[in-house]
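Quick one, probably user error.
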């Protein structure tokens, strides 16, 4: 197993380590979305800082996007922060974004501190109702 999952009341944190693959990320997505805590979770933090490599797997990013589309029906309030600097991970994120199938707001950060600040702010705004979003 190249990852560890930790749940809190509002957040699910996934820490990836060692040599990972996009198939590992898909496995995480399926496990998280199948968990009974998923529908009440507003924050997801994917931490790739201890990931040494990430192997690309054909069609996996499309599968992740499809799972997210379905999951957004039961939990439309999720925000996803990714902590990453490794070129393999950044490449995966760019390819995922280029699919144009993002069901959730997702941002990439270099530090856990900045990711948590964004997630905490996003969660506060998600509980409020705005005619237009307060930020992009």
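Nope, works fine. Designed sequence:
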């Amino acid at each position: 197993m190249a990852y560890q999952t930790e749940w809190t009341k509002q957040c699910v944190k996934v820490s990836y380590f060692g040599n990972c693959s996009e198939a590992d990320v898909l496995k995480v997505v399926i496990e998280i979305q199948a968990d009974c805590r998923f529908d009440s979770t507003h924050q997801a933090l994917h931490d790739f800082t201890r990931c040494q490599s990430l192997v690309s797997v054909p069609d996996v990013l499309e599968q992740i996007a499809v799972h997210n589309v379905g999951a957004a029906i039961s939990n439309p309030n999720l925000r996803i922060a990714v902590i990453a600097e490794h070129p393999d991970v950044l490449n995966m994120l760019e390819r995922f974004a280029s699919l144009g199938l993002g069901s959730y707001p997702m941002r990439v950060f270099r530090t856990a501190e900045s990711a948590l600040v964004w997630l905490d702010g996003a969660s506060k705004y998600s509980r409020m109702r705005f005619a237009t979003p307060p930020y992009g």
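Residues 127-136 have pLDDT under 50 and may be disordered.
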